[in-house]
Amino acid sequence: MKRDLWIAGAVYLTDRITKAFWGSIPKEGVTLIPGVVGLYPARNTGMAFSMLSGQPWLTGLLSLMLIAGGFLYLRGKKLRRLESVGLMMMLGGACGNLTDRLLAGSVPDMVELLFVRFAIFNAADVCLVAGCALVMADLLLGGRKKHG
Question: Which residues are CB-contacts of 5 (< 8 A; sequence separation ≥ 6)?
Fold first, then answer.
């Protein structure tokens, strides 16, 4: 896990950089690829899909507890490569969104898929989902040995 901590740092930094441009997105949004993706500034005061909206300290505390709990659980465990990369992506994304919750009381979202009705999201969200997918792929590909 320690060898891949740089991945969490890179995800966190990427998230902070992309969110720094959030304020420069016109309030009516902008299309990047017609019919595919655009940027639309939105604030999420909750967690995934606006769960627990309007309760920034509760979502911040819950996020902090999940991050700390994950660290305590994984401390000293030997992780396979794919699993470790996925977990570090999730850590970086979770820390990026946690920073916003604690400092601003909400998370700035900006990426909008134009071909489907879906939640507006940010770089941290992408890394959280991609990290989950990598961990699941590791499990499906036999990453965990069965114990008899």
Answer: 88
Contacts 24+ apart (CB under 8 A), 44-48: 44/106, 44/107, 44/108, 44/109, 44/120, 45/105, 45/106, 45/107, 48/125
Q: Is residue 146 part of a domain?
A: no
Residues annotated as catalytic are 109, 125
Q: How far apart are CA 22 and CA 40, in angstroms?
A: 9
Domain assignment present for residue 29? The answer is no
Lowest mean pLDDT of 3-17, 19-33, 72-86, name the range. Answer: 72-86
Which domain range does residue 89 map to? 2-22+36-140
Task: Write a three-state SS string for 72-84.
Answer: HHHCCCCCCHHHH
- What is d(CA 46, CA 104) in angstroms, rounded to the nearest whole number? 12
